[in-house]
User: Which sequence fits this backbone?
């Protein structure tokens, strides 16, 4: 009776043990996240960000994979792998243009794409594994859009254009306008002024008028300034000579 009583009391303990053993442990999960879209300009270096969270401690078994799918669709192609160290692609369009910027201990699995170009447009997927975390959302995608670089005009370029193109053009234009307006004035000055070097002796401008006036002086003019009596005698003699000439002709 005592033995049967002990067995009856052990039943609850056995049932509890079986329940604990049969119940499944909660499964660990990992979550990966990244920006849905990233925009870049041609020639720039762009960081493709990827972060993850895991309920398990990060160990050397943790790994990261980056894959690329072009806009024309098609299967994704893995071009970057990390497992204790980085293994970038050694061929294809990403050769020599990838840089690891991750930090697994902080939950960062980002990479940098150098010298982005239009051919890099497409969808990039980041996949992280950290056993025993094997469930959850281990993949996240980012769409990269690269646009052409627009050349920018700097202030120094504008200053150079003004200094070496516009200013000489303005000076030439002013010189042409001056040449168009000055000939009229020069012609007027040439007609009213002669250089003393070009004037021959006896033709000085100041004496020319006087000479012409002297050539037109008559005998009457010569005696106008003399004494009136002399002028009367001159007129009488001149009249007598005129009458004698008239009589001789008759």
Assistant:
């Amino acid at each position: 009776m005592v033995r049967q009583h002990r067995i009856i009391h052990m039943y609850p303990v056995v049932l509890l043990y079986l329940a604990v053993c049969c119940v499944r442990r909660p499964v660990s999960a990992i979550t990966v996240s990244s920006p849905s879209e990233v925009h870049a300009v041609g020639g720039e270096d762009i960081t493709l960000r990827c972060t993850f969270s895991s309920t398990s401690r990060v160990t050397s078994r943790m790994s990261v994979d980056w894959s690329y799918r072009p806009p024309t669709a098609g299967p994704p192609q893995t071009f970057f792998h990390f497992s204790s160290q980085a293994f970038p692609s050694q061929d294809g369009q990403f050769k020599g243009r990838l840089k690891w910027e991750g930090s697994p201990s902080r939950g960062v699995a980002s990479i940098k794409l150098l010298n982005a170009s239009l051919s890099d447009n497409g969808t990039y997927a980041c996949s992280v594994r950290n056993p025993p975390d094997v469930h959850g959302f281990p993949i996240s995608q980012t769409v990269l859009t690269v646009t052409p670089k627009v050349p920018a005009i700097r202030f120094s370029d504008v200053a150079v254009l003004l200094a070496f193109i516009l200013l000489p053009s303005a000076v030439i234009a002013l010189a042409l306008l001056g040449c168009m307006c000055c000939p009229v004035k020069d012609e007027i000055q040439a007609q009213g002024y002669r250089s003393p070097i070009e004037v021959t002796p006896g033709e000085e401008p100041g004496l020319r008028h006087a000479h012409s006036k002297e050539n037109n002086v008559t005998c009457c003019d010569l005696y106008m300034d003399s004494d009136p009596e002399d002028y009367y005698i001159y007129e009488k003699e001149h009249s007598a000579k005129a009458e004698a000439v008239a009589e001789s002709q008759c």
About this structure: The first strand starts at residue 29 and ends at 33. The chain is about 40% helix and 25% strand. Residues 13-26, 204-214, 219-226 have pLDDT under 50 and may be disordered. Residues 81 and 87 are 5 Å apart (CA to CA).
